[in-house]
Amino acid sequence: MSNGTYDVILVGGGVMGCATAYYLLKFDPHLNIAILEMDPSYEKASTPLSDGNTRIQFNIKENIQISQYGLEVLKRFSEEMEVNGEKPDAAFRRQGNLFVLDDASREESHEGLLLQKSLGCDVQWLSPDEVQKYYPLYNLKDCVAGTFGPHDGTMSPLAVLLGYKKKVMALGAVFIHAEAIEILKQESQIVGVNLSSGERLNSIIVVNASGAWARKTSKTVGVDLPINPTKRQVTIIETNARPEKTLPVLFLPSGLYCIHESEGTFTVGKSLPTDYVGYDDFNWERNKFETVIWPELVKYIPSFDRLKVTRGWAGLYEVNTLDGNAILGEWPELKGFYLANGFSGHGFQQCHAVGRYIAELILGINPTLDLSVFSPQRILENKPVFESRRKII
Which residues pair with 10 in a beta bridge? Predict the structure, then answer.
């Protein structure tokens, strides 16, 4: 670094920014890289507030391949992120992901399963009876079939984030506690960033990895992304159910999901049409669980008619209102402005492949995995790429 000039500036020090920095330095250890993070405590950052789930079960080939690479990375994550003899533990539990299918989702999910299998994924098609064997608490309401990914599961998002962060700092990346209040350009070329501290950093390459704040970030340089910061909340409950082994994560047709943590403890959540859009509300609303989520939960898992709510929290999704999928690559009308945005709830699990892809694009390396289907060009052309014909992620 000299005079505040860097080869690459990453706006956002969450898991996406840190993973991208890691791959940049892996490809070229001599790069001068700055990572800007307005909240190094990560109190409101989406990474540590996520459920930490990863799944192979997508309907778009590239999303499946992204997950496959992520699972490969997790196998060696501890060794690869070792710093001074310390190895991070992602605490990955392969309890599996179980998707319940109703009549409306059956055909499309079967097509998705065939695509997953053609790419080498271990995914199983289950009859209703088999679904109940995997999840005996579930009463099979609305169930016509199920899909089960035995290698899917949950982990500690914070452990993954800090694993990447410590590694990139050890590799020489500079972590700066500041908000990027303006991305700077000259004509159609990125030239740097103005910080909340009043300082200016110079670079001809800036990566927008600011998660739910992505639209706010890009607007400062005249790029309006179709991204809404959307509040999502989860609730931790204690139940009388005591399964002998950890149950799979249960995804119901309505979008309601239930993660078995341990013994009688479960995490429950659901995206709702009424979810608040904005940056100023991180309040967990117990009433929303009791009046909206719980009645539906009991319909599917009757033994949850009595439970204890122990805690909950709220965080932000970066919802891509065009199609719910990632927006990856250089903005076509602005040289040097790269986007890793719009993940709509599956950014954490996609950070490994996306970090590698963005790094390859920046350095002019032929991408290991072609993710051009998610190019920002589709935003300009209004050509959505839907994960599901029903437009539900």
Answer: 35, 207
Categorize the per-residue pLDDT at 116 as very low, low, confident or very high, splitting at 50, 70 and 90.
very high
Q: Residue 356 belongs to what domain range?
A: 8-81+157-226+322-381
β-bridge mates for residue 99, sequence order: 147, 251
Question: In terms of pLDDT, which residue wins out, 359 or 49?
Answer: 359
Tell me if 323 sits within 8 A of 221, measured CB to CB: no
Q: At what angle do helices 61-80 and 103-118 cross, to 10 degrees?
A: 60
Query: H or E stretch including 33?
Result: strand 33-37
> Domain tally for the chain?
2
Find all residues with CB under 8 Å of 247, minimum gap 6, and list them: 95, 134, 135, 137, 260
Give tens-digit pLDDT for 143-164.
999 999 999 999 999 999 999 9
Phi and psi dihedrals of 211, rounded to 5?
Answer: 60, -130
Does 137 share its domain with 17? no
* CA pair distance 313, 95, nearest whole angstrom: 23
Secondary structure (DSSP) of 52-92: -EE----SSHHHHHHHHHHHHHHHHHHHHT-BTTB------
Cβ of 308: how many Cβ atoms within 10 Å? 11
Kindly state whether residues 132 and 240 are assigned to the same domain. Answer: yes
